[in-house]
Amino acid sequence: MDQFVIEGGVRLEGEIPVSGAKNAALPVMAACLLTPEPVILHRIPEVRDIRTMARLLEHIGARVEFRNGTLRVEAAEIGQPEAPYELVKTMRASSLVLGPLLARTGRARVSLPGGCAIGARPINLHLQAMERLGARIRQEHGYIIAEAPQGLRGTLITFDRITVTGTEDVLMAAVLAEGETVLENAAREPEVADLAELLSKMGAQIEGAGTSTMRVRGVARLQGAEHTIIPDRIEAGTFLIAGAITGGDLLVTQCRPDHLTALISKLLQMGAEITEGGPGALRVRRPGRLYAADVTTEEYPGFATDLQAQYMALATQAEGVSLITETIFENRFMHALELMRMGADIRLEGRRAIVTGPRELTGAAVIASDLRASASLVLAGLVARGETIVDRVYHIDRGYERIEEKLSRVGARIRRISV
Description:
By secondary structure, the protein is of the alpha/beta class. It folds into two domains: 2-19 and 231-418, Alpha-beta prism (UDP-n-acetylglucosamine1-carboxyvinyl-transferase, Chain); 22-218, Enolpyruvate transferase domain (UDP-n-acetylglucosamine1-carboxyvinyl-transferase, Chain). It has 14 helices and 25 strands. The protein has helices spanning 22-31, 48-60, 85-88, 98-105, 124-132, 164-174, 190-201, 233-245, 261-270, 308-315, 334-341, 371-383, 394-397, 403-409; strands spanning 2-7, 13-17, 39-42, 63-67, 70-74, 82-83, 107-111, 136-140, 143-147, 156-158, 180-184, 205-207, 213-217, 225-228, 249-253, 273-276, 282-285, 290-291, 295-296, 318-325, 345-349, 352-357, 365-367, 387-391, 413-418. The strands form six sheets. Strands 18, 19, 20, 21 and 22 form a five-stranded mixed sheet that branches. Helix 6 (164-174) links the parallel strand 10 and strand 11. The protein starts with a strand and ends with a strand. Mean pLDDT is 94; it is low at 115-120.
């Protein structure tokens, strides 16, 4: 099992690039099942979740080639329209194949996802929407069995609450459904719009992508396409916070500043300087002290729950009291206990964390509980006095592409060891 060993106290300076978005890559990979023709995807990050999804596509029957960030998927035949537990248990996004399989073959067998460290992520909204489209759904031996032998039919679907994967899954099912489907209270995340862009290149007819109401006119067949996915806004946000927390001078390149407005606003409020560094680039500096600022996580375009843990690490270095409210997941403060072991002053009250700073952090052995918690502990280690050892970094490998190498190139003293 790998660990990160970090020697803190170094300002980060230089240029750090952002990879393609893992959360955009996974649904577009699932969308490749909608056509028998080849789909070529560029800027795919080489992270664990991508490799898992590639294995799932191969299990279903697709041919997958992955080289130098370019993925070629050809699902000429669907041999096994299923997502087995052995794969789904390691990656929640595996359930995204439900919609494409049901639309393409009229049947799907997908394992129910197990528990998640950061809270429940039920797929009941996916299933209710599939039933509205005409599918028959039943549960059997831990699997969801979905059947639509007569095909799917367009309808009005209003989500009870905003769901990103639910929106993506139903969107992929609707593009091959007969007639028009309207999705209301749809997720507006950039990753949803990126999926819609690929589907449109494949011949889908979609209006309103990136808004809360989407209209889809079903087509009989989709074709192959070529697509470059969007930059990873969560990785970009993590690097912006890294620059601010270390008092450094970082140029974060190959990103989309318009996807980061909520974080940028909060960093400016705290006293960091954020300026444009050219096309697709942001420069972050911290000329003086940081000041506390409250944050409440919300669906896009609000403050991303996937940046909450990293923001908490930053708040430990800010003067005053920061109130962090988590509204998306009910159990996403496990990193707080590890930060407290490093000297952070954090009090937890249900879905609120009260962070008082600034506090000098000291290096310690800490354990990552999930993907974004891993990133928060790395950030804390960058400013802690002494040595920090982050265990279970396989979590961070799920979503960050060689993060230790990128940080090392801008001055961080971080190395990976195997134990």
